[in-house]
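Figure 6 in text form: structure in, sequence out.
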C-alpha cells in the first residue's frame, strides 16, 4: 500500500486542544488494558486521536464545526472512543468485521443508545463485499412550520445496503492526499409522513466513506434527499484536518 503524504493543514486546532488530547489519552489508561492486534484500516491504539472539520446542512442552513475524537480504551476486541461533548462510541473489532455497537451518553450515567449494531467494514475489505445495517434520518426536514410535520424529533429508521466500492481509492482532504483507501458506499430508501400525515414521501439516503491505511476514516459524506415540495434535502461532510498519537 502507498502511504499517505500529508500536506499543509488549512485549519489547525489551537493549543488548548493539545491539553484535551493529553487528558483523553490518559483517561481510562489503566482500564485500557492492552492494545492488542487491530486492523491497519481502523487504528485502535489508545491515545490515537483525530481532528475533523464537519459541515451540516439542514433546511439550507449550514453549520460548520470541529470534532475531536480519541481512542481511550481497547482490550483487543472492544474499542471505546471519546468525542467532545457528552457521548462515547463503542466498537467491536472481530476477526471478520468492524462494527459500531453503541453510543454511550456520559451525561446520563453511561446509558447506551443504538437501534442495533452496524457493520462499518468487513475484514479484510474486498471489492464487492456487501452487507446491510440500520441507520436513521437526521438531515432531511419538512419545509412547513407545522409541528406535526417536523422530522428532526422523530425516530425514522432507514435500512442501508453497503458495499466496498474500491480498495485503491484516492481522496484529498485538508490533512493531505491519501491513496489506497477503502471506499465504502451505502444507499437506502424509506418513507416518511408529510403534509400533516396525508401522504408519505420517499427519502433516499446515500453515504460514502473513505478509510486510509494506517489512518482510519479520512472523509465521510451523507445526503438525504426527496423529490417532494414538502421536504428539504440535507447533507453532511466530514473531513480529516489532523491526526496523531
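Output sequence:
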Amino acid at each position: 500500500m502507498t502511504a499517505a503524504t500529508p500536506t499543509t493543514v488549512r485549519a489547525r486546532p489551537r493549543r488548548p486542544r493539545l491539553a484535551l488530547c493529553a487528558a483523553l489519552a490518559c483517561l481510562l489508561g489503566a482500564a485500557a488494558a492492552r492494545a492488542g492486534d487491530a486492523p491497519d484500516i481502523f487504528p485502535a491504539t489508545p491515545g490515537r486521536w483525530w481532528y475533523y472539520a464537519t459541515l451540516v446542512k439542514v433546511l439550507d442552513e449550514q453549520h460548520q464545526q470541529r470534532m475531536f475524537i480519541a481512542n481511550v480504551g481497547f482490550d483487543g476486541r472492544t474499542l471505546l472512543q471519546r468525542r467532545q461533548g457528552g457521548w462515547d462510541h463503542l466498537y467491536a473489532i472481530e476477526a471478520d468485521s468492524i462494527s459500531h455497537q453503541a453510543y454511550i451518553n456520559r451525561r446520563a450515567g453511561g446509558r447506551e443508545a443504538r437501534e442495533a449494531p452496524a457493520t462499518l467494514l468487513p475484514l479484510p475489505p474486498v471489492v464487492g463485499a456487501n452487507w446491510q445495517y440500520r441507520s436513521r434520518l437526521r438531515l432531511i426536514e419538512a419545509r412547513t412550520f407545522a409541528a406535526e410535520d417536523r422530522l428532526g424529533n422523530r425516530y425514522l429508521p432507514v435500512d442501508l445496503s453497503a458495499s466496498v466500492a474500491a480498495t485503491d481509492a484516492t481522496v484529498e482532504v485538508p490533512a493531505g492526499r491519501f491513496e489506497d483507501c477503502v471506499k465504502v458506499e451505502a444507499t437506502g430508501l424509506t418513507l416518511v409522513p408529510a403534509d400533516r400525515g396525508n401522504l408519505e414521501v420517499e427519502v433516499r439516503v446515500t453515504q460514502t466513506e473513505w478509510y486510509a491505511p494506517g489512518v482510519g476514516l479520512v472523509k465521510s459524506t451523507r445526503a438525504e434527499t426527496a423529490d417532494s415540495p414538502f421536504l428539504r434535502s440535507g447533507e453532511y461532510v466530514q473531513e480529516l484536518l489532523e491526526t496523531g498519537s
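Caption detail: The chain has one helix and 16 strands.
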